[in-house]
């Protein structure tokens, strides 16, 4: 049973907004575009594995979580956590194509793409070992003792893996049912599973790298302003009385400004003034800007001209991030 379903990572959604808004001539543009692709591929792989797990009858009575961050002495961001009757299983998903060399001393993952480009990544075993230790520590603080297993999962057969030495299991997604079968003892006893599920749920943390301009040290003046048309990709939708209108493709959308304000939250900062809102949406009237902001029921601080609207709730309630 899926307890916490798949959702794209905040960094992926944020990078999509940043890359869309960054001037293509910016020196960091290509690197960020590359990073966006890597993050999107990572999310795609995690989504695929979650779908496979949902269809695994063996897990019908188990609890599955996507993207778990828990308070611990060691930083933890577990791609997939599964609570089974007698154990906890952590999966680290790596959607990397090409030829992958997992080398020791020092442990590194070296990927050579089809075009011969070489990239070096953190060895997934290092992350997984850290998450297993972090999870042990977290459960210790809750007075729970249960075996914790982990595996690195490559979702697709588009990778050719070379490994120097044995260590934690490295699996293809199709091997997961067999791996899980080995680790799940048949048990009718579900009280421990439910207890751990509730503990995990009540300690879940959210972490975002926003605002990305600060995270990547980019000056906000390098961003493209205006309301972006989701239909044709052009900036500069015009505010009409009831809607936003794209002059390039005639697309209309009532809520196009909300997407722009979300971009602002993820990329520039968590609060916005009336003036910054007018610049962002490319509207002249402060009354129109005020009306748009008021309608969103955002908490605000300060009065009149120095009023700042808090965009936090806009992000956390946004359907796009689900
Ligand atoms: Zn358009």
Automatic annotation (TrEMBL):
* Segments forming domain NERD: 41-158
Query: What InterPro entries does this protein's entry cite?
Result: NERD
Name of this protein? Nuclease-related domain-containing protein
What species is given as this protein's source? Answer: Lysinibacillus xylanilyticus
Which lineage ranks, top first, belong to the organism behind this chain? Answer: Bacteria, Bacillati, Bacillota, Bacilli, Bacillales
């Amino acid at each position: 049973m899926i307890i916490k379903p798949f959702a794209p990572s905040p960094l992926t959604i944020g990078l999509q907004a940043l890359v869309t808004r960054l001037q293509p001539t910016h020196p960091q543009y290509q690197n960020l575009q590359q990073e966006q692709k890597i993050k999107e591929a990572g999310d795609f792989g995690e989504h695929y594995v979650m779908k496979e797990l949902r269809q695994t009858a063996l897990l019908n009575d188990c609890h599955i979580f996507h993207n778990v961050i828990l308070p611990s002495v060691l930083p933890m961001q577990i791609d997939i956590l599964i609570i089974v009757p007698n154990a906890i299983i952590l999966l680290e998903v790596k959607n990397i194509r090409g030829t992958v060399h997992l080398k020791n001393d020092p442990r590194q993952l070296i990927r050579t793409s089809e075009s011969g480009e070489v990239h070096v990544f953190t060895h997934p075993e290092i992350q997984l070992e850290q998450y297993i230790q972090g999870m042990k520590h977290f459960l210790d603080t809750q007075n729970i003792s249960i075996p914790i297993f982990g595996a690195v999962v490559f979702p697709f057969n588009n990778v050719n893996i070379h490994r120097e030495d044995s260590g934690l299991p490295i699996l293809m997604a199709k091997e997961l049912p067999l791996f899980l079968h080995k680790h799940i003892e048949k048990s009718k006893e579900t009280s421990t599973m439910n207890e751990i599920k509730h503990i995990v749920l009540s300690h879940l943390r959210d972490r975002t790298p926003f605002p990305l301009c600060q995270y990547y040290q980019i000056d906000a003046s390098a961003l493209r302003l205006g309301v972006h048309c989701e239909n044709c990709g052009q900036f500069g939708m015009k505010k009409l009385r009831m809607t936003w209108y794209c002059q390039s493709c005639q697309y209309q959308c009532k809520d196009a400004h909300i997407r722009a304000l979300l971009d602002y939250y993820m990329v520039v900062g968590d609060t916005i003034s009336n003036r910054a809102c007018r610049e962002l949406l490319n509207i002249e009237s402060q009354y129109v800007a005020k009306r748009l902001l008021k309608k969103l029921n955002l908490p605000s601080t300060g009065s009149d001209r120095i009023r700042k609207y808090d965009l936090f709730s806009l992000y956390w309630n946004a359907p796009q991030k689900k």
